[in-house]
Design brief:
The complex is a heterodimer of chains A (about 130) and B (about 400). With about 130 residues, chain A is mainly β. Chain A is built from 2 helices and 8 strands; from the N terminus they run ααββββββββ. Chain A has helices spanning about 5, 10-15; strands at about 15-20, 25-30, 45-50, 55-60, 75-80, 85-90, 105-115, 120-129. Chain B folds into 2 domains: about 5-120 and about 215-235, 3-Layer(aba) Sandwich (Peroxisomal Thiolase, Chain A, domain 1); about 145-205 and about 240-385, Thiolase/Chalcone synthase (Peroxisomal Thiolase, Chain A, domain 1, 3-Layer(aba) Sandwich).
């Protein structure tokens, strides 16, 4: 991923800053600028999530995505935050301890690197709470 | 709106075809379908080509023009040619666009083709290209792979409904069994549940035999208004319904992880247009990019109750000779999955079945068939219903 492409969403990725619709009281992470429920009616504001949530489903990846070869096996999961939105992230920990419904909390981690000499990018992963 | 019929069909071989190029494959399919229909090039009004990622697989864009050119339809005839992209649903969408062109009265004879040449890049590059069908910024960046996304669907399905790894394996076993009777199939070898369960883990709980392969191949069909279809063939296959639906690009935003709502809605739209329901369908080609995907598909299209897709598969209801034969071609699993071609190949299979030309995999007395093509983890679905009777 190019530097500007990552940098544009750096605050959202580092600090779990998403958005919410003031009309529908619906929260979005990843952030959205248009509410899918009321579309243009509502007003969108920023919202910082505390990141506490629950594991909805997960997998243990053995055949890695490009750039993640050194990390296998790694746990990829869908986390539901307390305010409702769901996101995809890695869950750090023993794959054997993972289960649906596991309470998780966010941690700041290195996500990857663009090639051997490229930018290292960081973001939010989760650990069992 | 005019009624539309398929008057010609052709698949190339599906598989690893080191000696054949992108354009070789699609020209073979297109010319084959034109010959099957017995239609002259001068009669062709337009073409639509499903292709997911010529850019990443063969560093070629401007696919529509390239194919018109090498099909001999560009230099003198200047036939309009449009590439259609919706990840793995590109072929199904190209077919739908072609149907719309004929149904609207704008065009009469239209080619709908699909092609993907996936083995000119290493497998890692192919996987990365396919991952572009998911949300790169919010799934891919976290290390998501396509098997990983479908594995999360499988995990939830198992948790909620008690679906087992053995039931997933039965999908692959059935589709390999069917594949051995399909001359174009990439894999014609029978496998057992043990073969699947002993294969290497890709993304737990999905193993390599739960996954469709990387494939080169192309397919094409020729469409005509139903009123003149008999001028070209004794066995036109009529398009009775077409439905398309979109859903969230990312799996995490779905209302229910185990339901592809795009499949449900596209299916409902196609059923409504045809005035038919699941009980009227004699056979169906569904999008089994992974074994769990076939289980979700037969539930979402109304052939099994939610949660019982694994059970009905294990009981043999989806085998040839069963209550509702699913993926007689071998499906994506055994026939192969050249992503842009798959949606067209499904229509070719149904047309051959409804014509009674499917050989050892023929479903006796098949009159109405369905195709179901999915893009990504379910952000696009397209469903078609065909009949041998007008």
């Amino acid at each position: 991923m190019s530097v500007p492409r990552f940098w544009r969403k750096q605050i959202a990725r580092y600090n779990l800053v998403g958005t919410y619709c003031k009309a529908c009281n619906e929260y979005f992470y990843p952030p959205r600028n248009l509410c899918p429920t009321c579309r243009r009616e509502g007003e969108i504001g920023e919202f910082k999530f505390n990141g506490n949530g629950e594991l909805v489903t997960y997998t243990v990846i053995h055949a890695a995505a490009e750039g993640f070869e050194g990390q296998t096996p790694y746990v990829l999961g869908i986390v539901q935050l307390e305010e409702g939105p769901r996101l995809t992230s890695q869950i750090v920990g023993d794959p054997k301890e993972m289960h649906i419904g596991l309470k998780v909390r966010p941690v700041f981690r290195r996500l990857g690197q663009s090639g051997e000499r490229g930018m290292i990018y960081y973001g939010t992963k989760f650990v069992p709470a | 709106m005019r009624e539309v019929a398929i008057i010609g069909v052709k698949n190339t071989l599906f598989g690893e075809q080191w000696d054949r190029s992108f354009r070789d494959l699609v020209v073979e399919a297109g010319v084959g379908a034109v010959e099957d229909a017995g239609v002259a090039g001068e009669k062709i009004d337009s073409m639509f080509v499903g292709n997911m990622s010529g850019g990443q697989f063969v560093e070629q864009e401007h696919i529509g023009a390239l194919i018109a050119d090498y099909s001999g339809l560009a230099k003198n005839l200047h036939v309009p040619s449009t590439r259609v992209e919706a990840a793995c649903a590109s072929g199904g969408l190209a077919l739908r666009q072609a149907i719309c062109a004929v149904a609207s009265g704008m065009d009469d004879i239209v080619i709908a083709a699909g092609v993907e040449k996936m083995t000119d890049v290493p497998a890692s590059k192919a996987s990365s290209a396919l991952a572009a069908a998911a949300d790169r910024e919010w799934e891919g960046i976290m290390g998501a792979t396509f098997p990983g996304l479908y594995a999360m669907i499988a995990r939830m399905h198992m948790h909620r409904y008690g679906t087992t790894s053995e039931q997933l394996a039965e999908v692959a076993v059935k589709n390999h069994f069917n594949g051995q009777f399909n001359p174009i199939a990439q894999y014609k070898n029978k496998i057992t549940v043990e073969t699947v369960l002993n294969s290497i883990m890709v993304a737990d709980p999905l193993r390599i035999f739960d996954c469709s392969p990387i494939t080169d191949g192309a397919s094409a069909v020729i469409l005509a208004p139903a009123d003149i279809a008999h001028e070209y063939t004794d066995t036109p296959i009529y398009v009775k319904g077409t439905g398309q639906a979109s859903d969230t690009i990312a799996l995490h935003d779905r209302r229910d992880i185990t339901t592809l709502e795009a499949s449900v809605v596209a299916g409902r739209r196609a059923y409504e247009m045809a005035g038919l329901g699941p009980k009227d369908i004699d056979l169906v080609e569904v999008h089994d990019c992974f074994t769990i995907a076939e289980i979700c598909a037969i539930e979402d299209l109304g052939f099994a109750k939610k949660g019982e897709g694994g059970k009905v598969t294990q009981q043999g209801e989806t085998a040839i000779g069963g209550r509702i034969p699913v993926n007689t071609s071998g499906g994506l699993k055994a026939c192969g999955h050249p992503v842009g071609a798959t949606g067209i190949k499904q229509a070719v299979e149904i047309a051959q079945q409804l014509r009674g030309e499917a050989g050892k995999r023929q479903v006796d007395g098949a009159e109405i068939g369905m195709t179901h093509n999915v893009g990504g983890s379910g952000a696009t679905a397209v469903v078609h219903i065909f009949s041998r009777n007008r």
